[in-house]
Amino acid sequence: MRSPEDIIIGPYITEKSNAEIANGKYTFKVDVNATKTEVKMAVEKLFNVKVLSVNTINYSGKTKRLGVYSGKRPDWKKAIVKIDTDPKPETYLTKGGKVVTTTKKYKTSIEEFGIA
């Protein structure tokens, strides 16, 4: 089992990703071999938020040249994570028929995202 720090490499900050933060979508560079489930669990554990969905995109590395020599940049993976920005309280019935309401203890945003 890999740790969440091994799965999430860092934030991926562009103009488009900054605009999507208002909708609760955060973009991360993740490990190439990470699955959507692993990314979801890592983000929930690291940032204490509730993840609704994860979309992943694989990018192949570009071929670059330096004079006569050519080489390839490494492949990488990007994950767009949608978090729950409005956690609703949970209500359920106890054994005696009494209704109990509990508040969810999730954050509604990731404050550490812009700091890199």
Which key features would you list for this structure?
116 residues, alpha+beta, Alpha-Beta Plaits, four-stranded antiparallel sheet, two-stranded antiparallel ribbon
Topology:
Blueprint (H helix, E strand, L loop, with lengths): L3 H4 E4 L3 H6 L4 E6 L5 H12 L3 E9 L3 E4 L2 E4 L3 E8 L6 E4 L5 E4 L14
Antiparallel strand pairs: 1-2, 2-6, 3-6, 4-5, 7-8
Q: What does this 3D model show about the protein?
A:
The longest helix is centred in the middle third of the chain and has 12 residues, at 36-47. The chain has one domain: RRM (RNA recognition motif) domain (Alpha-Beta Plaits). It is built from three helices and eight strands, in the order H-E-H-E-H-E-E-E-E-E-E. It has 116 residues and is of the alpha+beta class. It has helices at 4-7, 15-20, 36-47; strands at 8-11, 25-30, 51-59, 63-66, 69-72, 76-83, 90-93, 99-102. Strand 4 (63-66) and strand 5 (69-72) form a beta hairpin.
